[in-house]
From TrEMBL, chain A:
Residues 99-242 form the XdhC Rossmann domain. It holds the Pfam family XdhC_C. This is Xanthine and CO dehydrogenases maturation factor, XdhC/CoxF family. It comes from the Bacteria. Residues 14-70 form the XdhC- CoxI domain. InterPro entries: MoCofactor_Util/Proc, XdhC_CoxI, XdhC_Rossmann_dom. It comes from Bacillus badius.
From TrEMBL, chain B:
It comes from the Bacteria. This is Xanthine and CO dehydrogenases maturation factor, XdhC/CoxF family. The lineage of its organism: Bacteria, Bacillati, Bacillota, Bacilli, Bacillales. PANTHER family: ALDEHYDE OXIDOREDUCTASE MOLYBDENUM COFACTOR ASSEMBLY PROTEIN (PTHR30388), XANTHINE DEHYDROGENASE SUBUNIT A-RELATED (PTHR30388:SF6). InterPro entries: MoCofactor_Util/Proc (IPR052698), XdhC_CoxI (IPR003777). It comes from Bacillus badius. Residues 15-80 form the XdhC- CoxI domain.
Length: 266, 125
C-alpha cells in the first residue's frame, strides 16, 4: 500500500539523515490505512492523504517548512475536495544542525563536548594537528586546514552555526572573511567589542566590505550575559545563545514571563 | 534533538524482532508542555517503552492506550487537558493541553515483494 511505503520511506530517510516531511491524517476510525504522504526534500512524494486536494496543500506546506532553517512539526487544518477541514500532522525531519568551531584551543573543548551532547554535528577547524586531535575532541569531525584551504574543505549552509575562537587576530580575520558571506545564521566571535571593531576595520582596509545584513549575524562579544568565567561556563553561555538564536528567542530569564515557548508560526 | 532517533531505531528493532508496536506522537500543544509537537514514544506489545512525550505525566496512560491500539489496529487521538484541578490533584504541575496521536506501526514491507518499493527507495537518493 502506498501509505505504508510512505512510512517506510520516512524511516529510511531519517536513518540516512536526509530531509523530509511525513504528513499523516489524524484519523481515529477504522477506515483502511491512514492517509499518509511522505515528501522528501529531493525526489518524488510517496503515498497519499486520500484526496488530491489534501495532497496538493501538504506539498506546499512541506516545501515551505523544508525551506526554513529550523522547521517545527505542526498539525495543520487542510481542506479536502469537499471543502471539509481535515487535521493533518506534518512531521519534519532535518539532519542534525552543524556547529562549526574555528580554533582548537583548550576553551573549544567544552564547546565541542556540550555541542555534541546537544545533538549538533560538531566540526572543529584548526590547522594544528597537535591541538585539533581525536583525544581532545572525541565525537567531533576535525578538519585540519589553514585559512587558504577553507573554500575547498569547508561546507557551510543555512543550518551551520559558527563560533570563531582562534585566539589569533589574523586567523580570526581570515575566518571572518570566509564565513561572513556564507549562509550561516549565526557567527559568534570570541573577544571584546573593541577587538571586533579592530578586525572589521582591518578587513575593510583590505577592500572587503560586508552588508549590514551579513554583519547582523555576527555576535560579538559572544554568549548570553550569565557572567560566565572559565571555559566550561563560557561554553554554556555561547551554546545558550546559539540555542536562543536557533529557536528565535532572545535569551534572558523566563522568571515571570507569560510564555515559555514562542507560539507556533502558522 | 537526537531523542527521536532512538525511537526510530526502536521501531526498526521491534519490526525485525516481529513485535507489534504503537507509535505515540505529540501532535498539538496548547499552553505549556515539557515536550513539543513531534516528540515521540514507542510502545511495543511487551510494553517496552522508548522515548518521552511529556515530562513523565502522561507516559503511563499513553502506554495503556497504546496497548489497545496494538490490539485493535485502530489509531487513537487522546487529548490531555492538564487544567488546574487535575494538576493540583495529581501534583503534576504542567498546565497545558496536549494532543497525542497513537497509531499502530505498520509491518515492514518486504523489499522484494512490491514493485512500488523501488520508487520508495529511489526517492531517498
Amino acid at each position: 500500500m502506498p501509505q505504508q511505503l510512505a512510512f517506510d520511506a520516512w524511516l529510511d530517510c531519517i536513518e540516512e539523515k536526509r530531509e523530509g516531511v511525513l504528513a499523516t491524517v489524524l484519523q481515529t476510525r477504522e477506515a483502511g490505512p491512514p492517509g499518509r504522504l511522505f515528501i522528501p526534500k529531493d525526489g518524488q512524494a510517496i503515498g497519499t492523504l486520500g484526496d488530491s486536494a489534501l495532497d496538493a496543500q501538504a506539498l506546499l506546506v512541506a516545501a515551505k517548512k523544508l525551506n526554513e532553517s529550523n522547521p517545527k512539526p505542526q498539525t495543520k487544518g487542510l481542506h479536502n475536495a469537499e471543502k471539509k477541514e481535515v487535521s493533518v500532522f506534518m512531521d519534519v525531519y532535518i539532519p542534525p544542525l552543524k556547529l562549526m568551531i574555528f580554533g582548537a584551543g583548550h576553551d573549544a573543548i567544552p564547546v565541542a563536548k556540550y555541542g555534541a551532547s546537544l545533538g549538533f554535528h560538531t566540526v572543529v577547524v584548526d590547522q594544528r594537528p597537535f591541538y585539533n586531535s581525536e583525544e581532545r575532541f572525541p565525537g567531533a569531525t576535525r578538519i585540519i586546514a589553514e585559512t587558504a584551504k577553507f573554500a575547498e574543505r569547508l561546507f557551510i549552509d543555512s543550518r551551520t552555526y559558527i563560533i570563531v575562537m582562534n585566539h589569533h587576530l589574523e586567523k580570526d580575520q581570515e575566518t571572518l572573511k570566509f564565513v561572513l558571506p556564507s549562509k550561516a545564521p549565526y557567527i559568534g566571535v570570541l573577544g571584546p567589542r573593541s577587538r571586533r571593531i579592530r578586525m572589521l576595520e582591518a578587513i575593510e582596509k583590505e577592500g572587503v566590505r560586508f552588508e549590514n545584513s551579513q554583519l547582523e549575524r555576527m555576535y560579538s562579544p559572544v554568549g548570553l550575559d550569565i557572567g560566565a568565567s572559565g571555559a566550561e561556563e563560557i561554553a554554556i553561555s555561547v551554546l545558550g545563545e546559539i540555542i536562543a538564536v536557533k529557536n528565535g528567542h532572545t535569551g534572558g530569564f523566563l522568571h515571570n514571563s507569560m510564555h515559555i515557548h514562542q507560539l507556533a508560526q502558522s | 534533538m537526537s531523542e527521536n532517533l532512538l525511537v526510530i531505531e526502536a521501531i526498526q528493532e521491534a519490526r525485525e524482532a516481529g513485535r507489534k508496536s504503537a507509535l505515540a506522537t505529540v501532535v498539538r500543544v496548547y499552553g505549556s508542555a515539557y515536550r513539543r509537537e513531534g516528540a515521540k514514544m514507542l510502545v511495543d506489545e511487551h510494553e517496552n517503552i522508548t522515548g518521552m512525550i511529556s515530562g513523565g505525566c502522561l507516559e503511563a496512560d499513553v502506554a495503556e492506550a497504546a496497548k489497545q491500539v496494538i490490539e485493535s489496529g485502530v489509531p487513537a487521538l487522546k487529548t490531555y487537558a492538564m487544567d488546574e484541578d487535575v494538576v493540583w490533584g495529581l501534583g503534576l504541575g504542567c498546565p497545558g493541553t496536549v494532543e497525542i496521536y497513537i497509531e499502530p506501526v505498520p509491518d515492514h514491507q518486504p523489499a522484494n515483494k512490491k514493485a512500488g518499493n523501488e520508487d520508495a527507495s529511489a526517492t531517498c537518493f
